[in-house]
Design goal:
Elements lengths: L1 H35 L3 E4 L5 E4 L3 E2 L8 E7 L2 E10 L5 E7 L5 E7 L8 E7 L6 E8 L11 E5 L3 E3 H5 L11
Antiparallel strand pairs: 1-2, 1-11, 3-6, 4-5, 5-6, 6-10, 7-8, 8-9, 9-10
Length: 175
């Protein structure tokens, strides 16, 4: 009887040690996963990764009708600017150093929201959805190459964490 009880105690101690080690490993993995995970903004139309949250930047424009700061994709203080195009359409725009977009058409100098920069329409490389505009200085030199940026339409993007929570139910399961 004593051997049976001591065997159970050893087994219980081994199980507790295993659970402790497992808990430590899970915590360690969660901490490292947060360091390695990069939040993305996705194309609202097809879900393609368009811009990393860490590439968002502040590029204020005097042409903006309104400006505000907000937290987007875990980045605090992202500048959101409201612009109106010549067709009287309003856009809330954020800027990024770089983005996974395809430039469409020739650069235009007229009606630019950033003086000194020409713009081209930027579309999603997968589905062709209009995502914003690619801006480049009027005169392109080695020094100004780094000054290019992308203005992204906030309403045409989706936060990756939000998209991860969406559930698509097959039509056959709907009543």
């Amino acid at each position: 009887m004593a051997d049976d009880k001591s065997g159970r105690n050893v087994l219980l101690a081994a199980c507790l040690l295993f659970l402790y080690i497992l808990d430590v490993r899970i915590c360690f993995c969660e901490e490292n996963a947060n360091d390695e995970f990069e939040e993305y903004l996705l194309c609202r139309q097809c879900g393609l990764e368009i811009a990393r949250a860490s590439d968002l930047n502040k590029r204020p424009s005097k042409a903006a009708h309104r400006q505000r700061n907000d937290t987007i994709a875990g980045v605090d203080g992202v500048l959101i600017q409201l612009f109106k195009n010549p067709q009287e359409t309003y856009f809330e725009v954020i800027t990024a150093e770089t983005a996974n977009v395809q430039q469409h058409g020739q650069p235009y100098r007229q009606d630019t929201w950033w003086p000194g920069f020409s713009w081209r329409i930027s579309i999603c490389p997968r589905c062709g959805f209009h995502l914003g505009w690619y801006y480049e200085p009027f005169s392109q030199t080695a020094e100004t190459e780094e000054q290019t940026f992308v203005g992204l339409i906030l309403d045409n993007l989706l936060y990756q964490k939000y998209a991860d929570n969406l559930l698509v139910v097959p039509k056959s399961y709907r009543s």
